[in-house]
Design brief:
Elements: H1 3-13, H2 18-37, H3 40-51, H4 54-64, H5 77-101, H6 106-118, H7 121-125, H8 129-147, H9 154-180
Helix pairs in contact: 2-3, 2-4, 2-9, 5-6, 6-8, 8-9
Length: 182
């Protein structure tokens, strides 16, 4: 299997990242809502604990929509996907350190970590759009953290909306590719 074939399979099977990003977007919306109308603590707990369920919920949605939530045995990119998936949880101590120092840095620090998490997706999916997503997340996280610390939930709302937009962009890219191959 060539790299291009492996990337095409990842794009097709995972719908250009649509399901994972949509699930993540919902989680970020829930967290931002809690940050806005409840407490920062409840928002943080929701995002961190809920993050551990993104993978199983994404796989359930893939199965429910008739997609095979996995790659063929000849595609070793599943290993790369697993490594990319662990970037974010392994970055949480850094997010915690930032938020412990300044609570209003929680979302911006998480945005930077999330951007780093999405960078390997450029190669994994063979989709440069993930570089743009990573760049926007990192840039916005740094900007919000340094210049727009209030309201606390701003980074949460921004990230939720951004993930939803990019989920649909990825899906449209895959639909177009599938249409061209027919």
């Amino acid at each position: 299997m060539t790299i291009a074939e492996a990337q095409r399979e990842v794009r097709t099977e995972f719908a250009g990242g649509f399901f994972g990003q949509a699930v993540s977007s919902v989680l970020w919306f829930v967290s931002a809502a809690l940050a806005t109308w409840s407490t920062p603590r409840s928002a943080i707990i929701a995002l961190v604990v809920g993050g551990f369920f993104i993978f199983p919920v994404t796989y359930a949605l893939l199965r429910a929509t008739g997609r095979r939530p996995g790659l063929s045995k000849g595609n070793t990119f599943g290993q790369l996907g697993m490594q990319a998936a662990f970037v974010l949880p392994l970055s949480l101590p850094l997010v915690a350190a930032a938020a412990t120092h300044h609570l209003e840095w929680f979302y911006p620090a998480f945005m930077v970590a999330l951007g780093a998490h999405y960078l390997p997706f450029v190669f994994l999916y063979g989709m440069r759009i993930f570089a743009l997503l990573a760049g926007i997340l990192v840039g916005a996280g740094v900007f919000i953290g340094l210049h727009l610390r209030e309201p606390f939930a701003l980074g949460g709302w921004f990230t939720a909306a951004l993930l939803l937009v990019f989920a649909f962009i990825g899906l449209v890219i895959v639909w177009r590719e599938e249409g061209e191959s027919k």
